[in-house]
Amino acid sequence: xxxxxxxxxxxxxxxxxxxxxxxxxxxxxxYRADRPDDAWLARQLGREGVIVLVAELDGNIVxxxxxxxxxxxxxxxxxxxxxxxxxxxxxxxxxxxxxxxxELQHIAAETGAxxxxxxxDHGDDPAVALYTGLGAREDVMxxxxxxRPRGA
Length: 152
Fold this sequence. Notes:
152 residues; globular; alpha+beta; 5-stranded mixed beta sheet; 36% helix; 26% strand
């Protein structure tokens, strides 16, 4: 298995990763229906603060993660938010998620990030177990605030 970071030329790989996400999260509408064009994907993959890692086995994408570097203002440091992580069902419990997170932790250290943080949903016991084994748990609340046009 190879873990690698995607760059602007990896459009086919990021599309394959989105298919893994759609299947793993049982959400093909979000990850495959409204497909951005190649130029948009290349721009996002070219941003230093966008971290997309994939796990490849025999040339196939079997897992990956998407994370975002968040620069802080209270100190000269950043945090990395692990937003999406998924492994193809046929390849779970083989250390792929741990390898992906390990690579993200290396990137965090190289960039001087203060921490890597991730959220898990109540009831997602495999994710909670994985993250508990790798770090300290905090019980927080998450809120989605909708965008609101000016004057509304």
